[in-house]
Amino acid sequence: MLAVGINSTAIMAALPSMRTELGLSSAGVEWAVNAYLVVSAAFIVLGGQGADRFGARPASVAGLALFVVASCIIANAGTQAELLAGRALQGLAAAVAVPSTLAALDTSAASERRAAAIGAWTGFLMLGFSTPCSCSRPWPVSPPQVWARLVLTRPKVVARIGSALFC
Question: What is the pTM of this model?
């Protein structure tokens, strides 16, 4: 899930070099971001239904495997069309991986530990969303580093934050 979260913001750091190397137009730059978001939003409910129908574990493995394949397509993209196809495929993969990993967590965690598990899951996902921001911060400790330390060393604190926000 960390990779899915990192992907959502890492694209912003890569846009300038992708624009020059692939010769992206202004619309191409916008679609490099939006192809992922549009496809992910459009298919997230179907991804959850797939997890219900085929099982959360097989669906999450399939979603993450598809995400890796899509990342390889993007890494080797030589044209704008290849980049956009890879980003759309990444969005589809995220639409399968995100709800299926949450469903696996929901079914495998005992009811008294479910809030803590969902809080930790949310923490890792949010850590991924904020990680690229730490590259340009002049502060000695960046907010993502603080969040990572909380997630890894104080899971109960993260679970409480997650429970307060989402339960």
Answer: 0.69
